[in-house]
Design goal:
Beta Polymerase, domain 2, Polymerase_NTP_transf_dom, four-stranded mixed beta sheet, single chain, Hydrophobic Seed Protein, EC 2.7.7.59, 11% strand, Four Helix Bundle (Hemerythrin (Met), subunit A)
Length: 935
């Protein structure tokens, strides 16, 4: 803590926060003024205490803004609540229910338990109270408790309360671990203090004695369950400051175990108990102070008990805590990087306790002195391959505390042995590694053996992600690869990436390992098939490990990352050709995903241009596998079957070009082949019927429509014609791709796609792609792909039928589409997407297609965006040949292949400028709406 902050904190006078004696006097005065008027008196007491609480919280907030002391703020708020409860208790037992000669049974002790019992509170925290009585509660005690609770409830506080005798506390503490923990955290507030002391004595003697192992085991299991529910990783980009991994609850768990096992009252006593060193205690308090500052700011800003650090709050918290922008990193990203580094420190501190207890099978000794016991001789045997290490209780440990000093390469060799023999690391070894990080200098980084060992870890066929994560947690990875160290705990302020950059990179290695192990074949069968055919798997692992390593720099991270790879790969022992391939993969690691999701894959120019970038089938295979691993590592739900199908289509089409397959000259033969295949699928049709139907479609339809869909659409169109319907819809599901298809047959007109898009918005459906086809007789046969909402086909088909009905009603003019879309947009106006700002981009080019002008639009995603864009394009008298919709978190990338009404490209510069201006205004309108909604 800075000297200024220390002085500010020391100068704070709790009397300025709340004057308890003055508050007690005010309540006595209110009682005197309202004698015989219980309702009026109660209302006046509630109002006075509410004002005291509000005034005190306002002062505490001002102090927090000035000194930034989070733990002090939490302690001030707890002390403020103490004063309110104490004044209320005095009022009740003195003014309302005084006793001249109380019996031994007419005693009540008010005790703070749970979080409040620790003496720290956030503004929106629950107030957990235990009303302790000696035996069975008397009528007087019941009246006191009831009177206090009614006032606290009417003040709008969230009260957790119980009324128990000492015997009940002991009995319930034995039976219920949650109650035991609450009682452990108890703190005297008001009333008969002898009752409190008796409860503490009996709890120590009758509950805690001899049950340390049981308690520690239960708390560790409880922690694992909580973290699993909170998301499992401490690097989620919207962390929970209270319940998340590396958050306040982990510090609480740590202290609960320490307090219970070592029978201490204050966290500072854990140094004397031998659990923490003085430096670790300082780290504990530093982490606690930061997390409490964040949590208190969260509650103050939102006005409620909000513990999730969501995107829409992160920037405001960053500003409140004084973070500023640096080149390549925004203020909010610097704040969140600090948050994740603190979460990592909390994890390290928790591991000291958790691992030590696990190593002793949850049977901690009265005094855990790791300095004396970590190199004990019992239960140790020599580790294979190297005399520097031993296997200690089925964990890899160091032989002595000079292992790394004697040979710094052992800092890498340790993890290689962990991987080779699938051993867990011993906590004593992990702590010694952390203390030895200074040995990771330039000399070690250039050591050929160290680099070879690291490369073997990275490309292991066992569990490279697991070992790399252990290296990262100990700090070795960031020191050995300094460029990796720069992105440790780095958060990207967007909704697309679910994890910090380092966590994303480690998870991507895990995904690649999963593919190589032939797992999850139902999600990416082609990648699993191609992986064993690679000539050099090492190149792919290195490229994936480095693909985002240049994030957070002012320049394009793909280009900067390729430059880092050219410097680093030779150090790792890769040859010139391998280095070139790694650099190319990093530079192009986004290309395949972008083209697959936002280009017309049936347009020959798309495939040919991509083939020119890739140049070889081997690079194409590696880029496909890298792209899949990268997308899957972004976060849960980001990868889906639709993206997989797009990537597979792009792969197969490009491979044909690279291996000398069909070219543009084969267009006619491909059309004929598609027709022939459809003919085989319709054996019940006569040649005349088929010829008449085939003549309704232009060549592009045959080139881009898959046989199964072509058959389904043929039967649908003929059935509609037989029924005399000029407007009809058909729905089908595709569980593998994760989409549902809505096919629309309607008379063609420029506003058709816009109307369909609006109807989908009104029905709550999310369009992911659109295939648009015009027939020779003036109809449109459009297929809209919407994101799947239900796992079961019958449920999804019912939903799709409702969407189709909305489309038909819209096209008939039975729905006021504009109003319905506006309602959807209004409902989504407070979405957390509004926390972001994206500069709208409009790209108009004739270079991406031989037949169409391509318009690429990038902006802030919002409900109804596709409807607004297609509506604007139709008003510009542009025909949309295909639409490709992609969203990357809050960022929407919509691409349209268009022509003018004569079927020609938009070549005139003035016309392009008009289109650009109009489309940019649509995107900017959404940004303005977002900003106004946010404010």
């Amino acid at each position: 803590m800075s000297t200024v902050r220390q002085r500010l904190r020391a100068a704070r006078n709790m009397r300025a926060l709340v004057d308890r004696e003055a508050l007690i006097a005010d309540l006595a005065k209110i009682t005197a003024e309202h004698r015989g008027q219980s309702r009026e008196r109660h209302a006046a007491v509630v109002a006075r205490l509410k004002k005291a609480l509000a005034d005190g919280r306002a002062i505490a907030r001002a102090w927090l803004n000035e000194d930034g002391a989070g733990t002090a703020c939490a302690e001030r708020l707890s002390a403020l609540m103490d004063a309110v409860v104490q004044a209320l208790h005095h009022h009740v037992v003195t003014d309302l229910y005084p006793l001249a000669n109380p019996s031994s049974g007419e005693r009540v002790c008010v005790i703070a338990v749970g979080g409040y019992g620790r003496g720290t509170m956030a503004p929106g925290s629950d107030v957990d109270l235990l009303f302790l009585v000696p035996f069975k509660a008397t009528a007087w005690a019941e009246s006191v408790v009831e009177a206090m609770l009614y006032v606290l409830w009417d003040m709008g506080l969230k009260i957790g309360h119980s009324r128990r005798s000492i015997d009940e506390c002991i009995r319930l503490s034995r039976a219920d671990m949650t109650i035991r923990t609450a009682v452990l955290e108890s703190r005297f507030i008001a009333g008969d203090e002898n009752l409190f002391e008796e409860k503490v004595r009996r709890f120590d003697e009758e509950v805690a004695a001899g049950t340390a192992a049981e308690f520690a085991s239960a708390k560790l299991a409880e922690r694992d369950e909580r973290i699993g529910k909170a998301g499992g990783s401490r690097y989620l980009v919207e962390p929970n400051v209270k319940e998340g991994k590396g958050a306040l609850r982990d510090l609480n768990t740590l202290f609960w175990i320490g307090k219970y096992v070592y029978r201490v009252r204050d966290v500072g006593d854990l140094v004397d108990a031998g659990l923490f060193s003085a430096a670790e205690l300082r780290l504990f308090r530093k982490c606690e102070d930061f997390l409490w500052a964040v949590r208190c700011h969260l509650h103050f800003i939102t006005g409620r008990a909000e513990d999730r650090l969501s995107f829409d709050l992160q920037r405001e918290i960053a500003v409140a805590l004084g973070y500023t922008e640096h080149p390549g990193l925004r203020d909010v990203e610097r704040f969140m990087k600090h948050y994740f580094l603190v979460a990592k420190d909390v994890g390290d501190l928790t591991a000291i306790v958790c691992h030590a207890l696990e190593a002793r099978h949850q049977k901690p000794k009265p005094r855990l002195d790791r300095f004396l016991t970590r190199f004990r001789k019992s239960n140790r045997r020599a580790a294979p391959e190297n005399g520097a290490f031993v296997i200690d209780g089925d964990r890899l440990n160091v032989h002595d505390d000079q292992v790394f000093a004697r040979d710094p390469v052992n800092l890498i060799r340790f993890f290689k042995i962990m991987d080779a023999h699938e051993l867990a690391g011993h906590p004593a070894a992990a702590r010694l590694i952390t203390k030895s990080l200074k040995l990771l200098d330039g000399k070690l980084r250039d050591d050929a053996e160290a680099n070879q060992l690291f490369l073997e870890i990275l490309t292991s066929k066992r569990s490279p992600e697991k070992i790399l994560r252990r290296m990262n947690e100990t700090g070795v990875l960031g020191r050995f690869i300094p460029d990796f160290g720069r992105i440790v705990a780095m958060m990207q302020f967007n909704m697309y990436h679910h994890y910090t950059v380092d966590e994303h990179l480690l998870r991507s290695i895990g995904m690649l390992s999963e593919i190589e192990a032939r797992q999850a074949a139902d999600q990416h069968p082609l990648a699993n098939e191609l992986m064993p055919t690679l000539r050099d798997r090492v190149v792919l692992y290195v490229a994936l490990f480095l693909h985002d390593i240049a994030k957070g720099r002012p320049e394009d991270h793909s280009i900067a990352g390729a430059r880092i790879a050219r410097r680093l790969c030779p150090r790792l022992g890769l040859g010139a050709a391998q280095t070139d391939t790694v650099a190319w993969l990093i530079e192009q690691h986004l290309t395949m995903s972008i083209i697959a999701q936002s280009r017309d894959l049936s347009d020959r120019r798309t495939i040919e241009d991509f083939a020119k970038i890739v140049q070889s089938p081997e690079r194409l295979k590696m880029l496909l596998i890298l792209t899949i691993a990268d997308i899957k590592a972004v976060g849960p739900g980001v990868w889906n079957g639709w993206k997989g199908q797009l990537l597979r289509t792009l792969y197969w089409e490009t491979e044909l070009v690279l291996t000398g397959g069909h070219s543009a000259g084969d267009r006619r033969s491909l059309v004929d082949a598609s027709k022939a295949e459809l003919r085989e699928r319709l054996p019940d049709w006569s040649d005349t019927e088929f010829a008449a139907y085939a003549e309704r479609h232009y060549a592009p339809y045959w080139l881009k429509t898959e046989p199964e869909r072509a058959e389904r659409q043929a039967r649908f169109a003929v059935k509609a014609a037989a029924a005399g319907e000029t407007l009809a819809t058909d729905v089908s599901t595709d569980a593998f791709r994760g989409v549902t298809e809505v096919t629309v047959l309607a008379p063609d007109h420029p506003r058709l796609l816009s109307t369909i898009a609006g109807a989908c918005v009104a029905a709550g459906a999310n369009i992911v792609d659109a295939h648009i086809n015009t027939t020779t007789d003036g109809f449109a046969l459009d297929t809209i792909f919407i994101g799947r909402a239900f796992p079961q086909d019958e449920d999804e088909l019912r939903r799709a039928a409702r969407v189709a009905e909305a489309v038909e009603r819209s096209l008939r003019g039975e729905i006021k589409l504009f109003e319905m879309v506006a309602k959807r947009q209004e409902a989504g106006a407070k979405s957390k997407v509004r926390a972001f700002e994206i500069e709208p981009e409009v790209t108009i080019t004739n270079a991406w297609s031989d037949r169409h002008t391509v318009i690429e639009l990038v902006g802030l995603d919002r409900p109804g965006l596709l409807y607004e864009l297609t509506d604007a394009l139709s008003k510009l008298n542009l025909n949309i040949a295909s639409a490709h919709v992609a969203t990357f978190g809050e960022r929407a990338v919509d691409v349209f292949y268009v022509t003018d009404l004569t079927g020609a490209k938009i070549a005139n510069a003035n016309r392009q400028a008009a289109v650009r201006t109009r489309m940019k205004s649509v995107l900017e309108n959404g940004s303005r709406k977002g900003r106004s909604a946010a404010h």
